[in-house]
Amino acid sequence: MNNLMCQKTRSCDDARGEDAIHEFGVPRVRFEDLPMDVVYRIMSKLPPKEFARANVLSSKLRCTWSVCPRLTFDGVQVCKCHRWDLVQHTGRFIHEVNSVLQKHHDKVVETLEVRMDLVDSLLVHHLNNWVSFAASSGTKNLTLDLKPIDFFLKPQLERFVFPFQLLDSGRISRLQHMQLSFVSLKPHSHYRGFPNLRKLHLQLVHANKKDLGHVLSHCCNLEWLCIDRCHLNDELVVNGPLSHLLYLSIDCCEITKVEFHAMNLTTFEYYGRFIPIGLSHSLKIQSANIMFYAGVFQDVLVSILNGLPNVENLTFRIACLDLIKKQWLWDNPLKFSRLKHLQLYLNIPGRNEDSILYSVSILRATPFIEDLEVHFGGTTSLWLADVGPRRQDIGQCNPYNRLKKMWITGFKGVRGQVEFMLHVVENAPALEVLTVDTHKRSTSGGDSWTKKSGPPPFEEAKRIALTCLSRAISLSTKLDVI
Fold this sequence. Notes:
By secondary structure, the chain is α/β, with parallel strands linked by helices. Strand 15, helix 10 and strand 16 form a beta-alpha-beta unit. Helix 11 runs parallel beside helix 12. The protein is elongated. The N terminus is likely disordered. It comes from Sorghum bicolor (Sorghum). This is At1g61320/AtMIF1 LRR domain-containing protein.
């Protein structure tokens, strides 16, 4: 395509000649001298008669018009109305889109975007035609963003059924990027997949376990996949190998399990309820960012250890921490084989203030840890709480020989936090930098100081940290208490 564009541009430039310069040497800006995207935008808004006249008058324009980089149809922009009023303008939107697409018949359209609330069944027939147009136009990038503004108030609204039957492998061979929002996926029995699809974003999509797994398994060249608020109420299992998949994000989906065979996956992001994670085939995973709504600390950790044993950088959050178990410290045989950088966000409820120390269980599963961040959040009852076990109560462990940096935030002078830090310091002979911050970095709530006796005791917490750590750290370790 780049060669085609270059050939057309050169031929047009050759035909331009010397008449682009005024007699006084001042360049004359002509219509065909405008940037390509500006030309396409202007031409797409012309009435049919003016469009035809412009093509007759300008052979150079015909030369550039064989390829169109982008057609974007946004309901609010096209209809010049508030989004809440789109239902009154569906007919106008359909007319405008059809008029523009008619002008681009038999043209290559690189990108087609339709952003219109699916508030009228009248749209369905035309949406089918527009998808067919995209296929016949050799579109590379297709977006159908159909979610109504009030979709969360009307869960019974019907989705647009994506017309797989209008597509065959030949017609969709150019399609590389696709975003589908508020559609339903029901592939027919002869569906063979999107052979060259690289990027897929599914949002508010309806599909069952079988159909979604079938669609994804047949996107064999997929590199980037985001699944956003798609509620299967079942397992998300993709049995087909996705050997090109590098990025996978699952956000706020009602699913009971996730399992992919993506051996070259490098980035995984998950936000939602606690579920088993099955990505053990992903041997090259570099970064994982996981947030569970709630869960028992060690149960969640086991799920991550089983599903992502090869991760190198892990960010791990539990929005509502139910419990931190003690027994798991001695029972766990699982280990992260490559984990070097760990960000741990712990929102400690008042009932767990005596079990903070047991969170060191995650460190015992990270023999190659080099950089550790622990961001504490919790209620005001944590401040200066002198409860919980001592580090001597949890027994010996293998040293963290590679740990060089540790950063603690949300330090409140709690015994569990002090003992956690002392445990690490005493078992990290290569520790170079230790930073303790009494201010919160955790994104969780419930941390406001509400007592009337004055501001939070930051200075007392700092004094506790300095007193305890100064005696334990080596002279080669830089200590910074904020």
